[in-house]
Amino acid sequence: MNELTLTVLGNATPYPTRDNPCSGYLVTNGDTRVWMDAGTGTLGPLQHHTGLAELTAIWISHAHADHTADLLTAYYALRYADIDRDPLPLYCPPGLADRLANFLTNGPERSPVESAFAIHELHDGHQVQLGELTLTSRAVDHGIPAFGVRVESPEASLVFSGDTAACPALTELASGCDLLLCEAESDQRPADEPPVHHTPEDAGETAQAAGARRLLLTHLGRSVSPDDAVTRAAARFAGPVEFAEPGSHITV
């Protein structure tokens, strides 16, 4: 039996702290290894666990830099360094390849992003099989094209919210999951504009409504302490609540 495991590479926002990169996670199941979000600074700790040559795929929730910036350095590694492999499958929101190319192009010819990454654009309901893992993506509410993902192995299920306000699509995606990895960047619901993030209370309510077995809080706003976030979420969710400590390794 291959265990489904989650390693927290980092979860700071909107920029890294001294000890915590931005959003990035490694999901493993046997020989299948998926880098979920490639936020600033996550390529370094990723290499404690696997190299780019051994990765099965990268999955990106949305195009904000604290979830994508290390794709730029991964491009240089894949193109010009010591990595020998076919283009790395990259599952990402529409248009992300062109955004990368716009940044990387330094002359009259477009940077050959597709020579480093095999681009697969996500859509609501997108599904892909990677080894024994099934990844199902749903469009969520973040003000830009953004996705959550359900990762299912034969034995367990993990749902990652990406960045989003509480929304029916995420609740449906997380229905009955073993572990909900949910962001809680907002300290409180904005009064004068549509929400684009969960509060800790929202995360608890989403987990409760979905019937998730466990809730793991991540990507906290810088004004929210992990202990406070866990306490606030636990008031809305009957199951276990923990903080996704950077560097932690969780069996789902």
Please outline what is shown here.
InterPro entries: Metallo-B-lactamas, RibonucZ/Hydroxyglut_hydro. The chain is α/β, with parallel strands linked by helices and 252 residues long. The chain has seven helices and 14 strands.
List keywords for this structure.
7 helices; seven-stranded mixed sheet; Metallo-beta-lactamase, Chain A; 14 strands; alpha/beta; 252 residues
**CATH T-level topology:** Metallo-beta-lactamase, Chain A
CATH class: Alpha Beta
The CATH homologous superfamily: Ribonuclease Z/Hydroxyacylglutathione hydrolase-like
The CA-CA distance between the termini, in Å, is: 13 Å
Q: Which H/E pattern describes the elements? A: EEEHEHHEHEEEEEHEHEHEE
InterPro entries: Metallo-B-lactamas, RibonucZ/Hydroxyglut_hydro
GO molecular function, one term: 3'-tRNA processing endoribonuclease activity
Domain Metallo-beta-lactamase: 21-219
Pfam family, one: Lactamase_B_2
Polypeptide structure, described:
The protein has 252 residues and is an alpha/beta fold. The chain has one domain: Metallo-beta-lactamase, Chain A. The protein is 21% helix and 27% strand. Strands 6-5-4-3-2-1-14 form a seven-stranded mixed beta sheet. Helix 6 crosses helix 7. The longest helix has 11 residues. It is globular. The two termini are 13 Å apart. The relative contact order is 0.15. The mean pLDDT is 96.
